[in-house]
């Protein structure tokens, strides 16, 4: 693809609005996690979800090695949490309350909902991988709270329009 324009690719894909999650895990008693927008529901029967970690992620190998990961769906007020988990090489859990879900992966305080999974399989995909999770527990923690959204490099909150 000689004519491929990475800037155009990024600009075009940035028009796809997503929520923001923090994928967490716990290896040898040490919590780890990173912010992600590339997350999707995948299958109902069996219940599967997909997460797309960059090969540059330093936290993902710890989640992989633990055999599990928890998807924490951020609420609109959790932009500061996103900022922390978008950094690398720091203690991201220092200022945060959390508890272990059924897989042992951290459920962060204040999230809208979470999806706790065992890692089913991981596929190679360019500079990312496709991590498929088999869902073991799902929970909505707060109703009536808006999700954090990401669109064209900016953050916002969902606003319903009339049907
Ligand atoms: C809104 C947003 C979405 C992101 N989406 C992803 C993603 O889908 N996959 C990924 O691997 N990194 C994603 N990142 C980047 C990671 O959060 C970032 O590289 C982080 O530093 C990785 O931390 P780690 O080295 O501890 O894994 C995203 C960051 C932001 C702010």
Provide the CATH topology.
Pnp Oxidase, Chain A
CATH architecture: Roll
What share of residues is helical?
10-25%
The strand line-up of the biggest sheet is 3-2-6-9-10-5-4
Measured distance between first and last alpha carbons: 42 Å
CATH class: Mainly Beta
Characterise the protein shown here.
This protein has 163 residues and is mostly beta strands. The chain has helices at 6-13, 60-66, 79-85, and strands at 18-19, 21-27, 30-36, 39-43, 48-51, 68-73, 98-100, 106-108, 113-125, 128-140, 148-151, 154-157. The relative contact order is 0.22. The mean pLDDT is 96. Flavin mononucleotide (FMN) binds at residues 20, 34-38, 52-54, 57-60, 82, 85-88, 150. Flavin mononucleotide binds next to strand 3 and helix 3.
Summarize the structure.
By secondary structure, this protein is mainly beta. The protein has one domain: Electron Transport, Fmn-binding Protein, Chain A (Pnp Oxidase, Chain A, Roll), CATH 2.30.110.
Features:
single chain, 163 residues, mainly beta, Pnp Oxidase, Chain A, 7-stranded antiparallel beta sheet, 3-stranded antiparallel beta sheet, globular, binds flavin mononucleotide
SSE map:
Layout: H1 6-13, E1 18-19, E2 21-27, E3 30-36, E4 39-43, E5 48-51, H2 60-66, E6 68-73, H3 79-85, E7 98-100, E8 106-108, E9 113-125, E10 128-140, E11 148-151, E12 154-157
Antiparallel strand pairs: 1-11, 2-3, 2-6, 4-5, 5-10, 6-9, 7-8, 9-10, 11-12
The chain binds flavin mononucleotide (FMN).
